[in-house]
Amino acid sequence: MKILITGGLGFVGTNLISHLTKKGGYQIVVLDDESLGKRSHVAEPIQFIKGSICDRSLVDQALVGVDAVVHLAAHTRVVESMENPTYNFEVNVNGTFNVLSAMRAAGIKRIVNASTGGAILGEVPPPVHEEMVARPTAPYGASKLAVEGYCSAFNAAYGMEAVSLRFSNVYGARSFHKGSVVAAFYKRILANKPLVVYGDGSQIRDFVFVEDLCQGIEQAILQDGITGVYQLGTGIPTSVNTLIDSMKQVVPEQYPIHVQYEDFRRGELRETFCDISKARRELNFNPATPLIEGLQVTWDWFVNSQQTSRETVLI
Ligand SMILES: NC(=O)c1ccc[n+]([C@@H]2O[C@H](COP(=O)([O-])OP(=O)(O)OC[C@H]3O[C@@H](n4cnc5c(N)ncnc54)[C@H](O)[C@@H]3O)[C@@H](O)[C@H]2O)c1
Prior knowledge:
The chain is an alpha/beta fold. The chain is built from eleven helices and 13 strands. The strands form four sheets. Strands 3-2-1-4-5-6-11 form a seven-stranded parallel sheet, sandwiched between helices. Helix 1 (about 10-25) links the parallel strand 1 and strand 2. Nicotinamide-adenine-dinucleotide binds near residues 73 and 114.
């Protein structure tokens, strides 16, 4: 099966390439502008096309002979989307519309679109699920909601099997460039700096291990007739303070963990975790990795890559 992964050099993409390569039977094309990910981060055999999803002729080129698209390319930083909503819109909405239009023209019927849970739904009582009314609190969430709308329309109007997977907080190896909480905390521990918590640490998140997420993405690639929206997380609410306690169990004593509490940041959710029963039922999604185990794998990766890459310690 030939798959195009847009944004395939990023955190989720590089883990997905590794996952699919181990499984076997996939030919992988990556379209990525290297704004964050780098070609040198992928050891597996792939066909790489450097450029933006906003460039229609490159997207057309990347789609030649492709059976399905996993669409990960995006501007992914929530706080930056508030500072520069226009750029976020250009990449996430216009770029994705470009990908969908090119797929339609090429007769490619299946897209697995990376979406998000908390940022789309806004401040609603958890667990969040697919039937809730969306009220995004930042341009990033609004862009992802718009894209879900286009996926729905391309399904209804043109028969495209377009599935949007709403990821919760993903963590794992290969996330050194991420500002998300696990990566940010590990980089600060390695740099002997205090962990910065915005708020009192009681805020709730749903931390899903990237390997489990990749299993869910693969299910969505393979399953015929899947469309619509699915929450992919663990369904387990975890406070940031609990996350820090778990990190203390994983990180050796030679790296002391200090915490600095600051004010809550505008636009950030206090509490979100998801109900994954639809994904369990229809996608056979099974996020089985305990937090401690996933944190251990992630820590080991950060320590090892710190020795080989200076990028890891940039904060
Ligand atoms: N990581 C998470 O916790 C999380 C949570 C919810 C949703 N998501 C979504 O999952 C997807 C993948 O996330 P990630 O964590 O791997 O992000 P990432 O930032 O690590 O990867 C994104 C990749 O897209 C590339 N890219 C950016 N703009 C591009 C453009 N215009 N054209 C081509 N490539 C471009 C970047 O170079 C990077 O390699 C994103 O759509 C993100 O919004 C991620």
